[in-house]
């Protein structure tokens, strides 16, 4: 069977461990023949991500804290001469306190931090790396339903994801003429390191599995395969969108009585 991403190079930001959504995306991309470049955030993560990169057959594993302009510039420098076909932004952060106390108590600093790491970084990463997409390509990010509905304790991250989805639309509009598509994948809740920071997360998982049309939780591989579709020729007509990979949970108004 032919591979969807043969001959393409993808940079994937946000692999922290094997449970990361970005790791599953990297696995799908590798299966479909893409050449992989991974990034990690700081020395603390270097050895872990280099090891994961080896398992995934990544060609390059590079440092980049997306909040540091000098590290983004160094990333661009390290990629000089590369052609990128896909950019996967799978990054978010908010202070733990802001994901457990009432939303009303969100601090100014906590709000700014969540928006900087989780929304603005899509803009800065796209600005820095899209010039390397000399033959067009696909940029994608990860979002969550908490952007448009109230999910307990998702709080400031819901605001950050709403901004992220708006960024997707503006970037899609500006980069479309260059043949670059920009989309978000709205994944259902998945137990990852980031998700564990959200107070009461396991209750959310149970609730979704009980009432979603597919009666299950989302698997990271399902997200990985949607990302592969978006990065491939098959996704060529899709830009500016939020694609739900959530076992159908979004469409439910009231749970169907069994
Ligand atoms: P994850 O494995 O913890 O991935 C989050 C990644 O963001 C980590 O690699 C983390 O690096 C990185 N990161 C945070 N701050 C950064 C910075 N300043 N610079 C560079 N990287 C930074 O969790 P995940 O669940 O896979 O999250 C990936 C994306 O999916 C996020 O956008 C998340 O909001 C989204 N999402 C998750 C779910 C879910 O239920 N899990 C659902 C929908 C959407 P470090 O570990 O080194 O800090």
Plain-language structure description:
The protein is of the alpha/beta class and 258 residues long. It has one domain: Rossmann fold (3-Layer(aba) Sandwich). 39% of the residues lie in helices and 15% in strands. The chain contains seven helices and seven strands; from the N terminus they run βαβαβαβαβαβααβ. It has a seven-stranded parallel β-sheet with strand order 3-2-1-4-5-6-7, sandwiched between helices. α4 packs parallel to α5. The longest helix has 22 residues. The termini are far apart. The mean pLDDT is 97. The protein binds NADP nicotinamide-adenine-dinucleotide phosphate. NADP nicotinamide-adenine-dinucleotide phosphate binds next to α1 and β5.
Give a quick rundown of the structure:
With 258 residues, the protein is α/β, with parallel strands linked by helices. It has helices at 21-31, 43-56, 69-78, 108-129, 155-175, 201-211, 220-231; strands spanning 9-13, 35-40, 60-63, 86-89, 137-143, 180-187, 242-245. Helices cover 39% and strands 15% of the residues.
């Amino acid at each position: 069977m032919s591979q969807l991403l043969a001959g393409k190079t993808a940079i994937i930001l946000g692999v922290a461990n094997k449970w990361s959504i970005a790791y599953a995306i990297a696995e799908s991309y590798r299966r479909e023949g893409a050449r992989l470049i991974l990034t990690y955030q700081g020395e603390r993560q270097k050895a872990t991500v280099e090891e994961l990169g080896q398992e995934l057959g990544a060609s390059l594993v590079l440092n980049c804290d997306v909040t540091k302009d000098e590290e983004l510039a160094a990333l661009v420098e390290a990629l000089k001469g590369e052609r990128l076909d896909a950019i996967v932004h799978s990054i978010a952060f908010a202070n733990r306190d802001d994901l457990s106390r009432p939303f009303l108590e969100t601090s100014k600093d906590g709000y700014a931090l969540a928006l900087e790491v989780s929304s603005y970084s899509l803009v800065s990463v796209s600005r820095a790396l899209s010039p390397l997409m000399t033959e067009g390509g696909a940029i994608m990010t990860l979002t969550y339903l908490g952007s448009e509905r109230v999910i307990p304790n998702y709080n400031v991250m819901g605001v950050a994801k709403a901004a992220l989805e708006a960024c997707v639309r503006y970037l899609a509009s500006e980069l479309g003429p260059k043949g670059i598509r920009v989309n978000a994948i709205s994944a259902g809740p998945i137990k990852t390191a980031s998700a564990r920071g959200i107070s009461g997360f396991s209750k959310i998982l149970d609730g979704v599995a009980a009432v979603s049309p597919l009666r299950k939780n989302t698997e990271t591989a399902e997200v990985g395969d949607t990302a592969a579709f978006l990065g491939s020729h098959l996704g060529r007509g899709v830009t500016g969108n939020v694609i739900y990979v959530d076992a159908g949970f979004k469409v439910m108004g009231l749970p169907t009585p069994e």
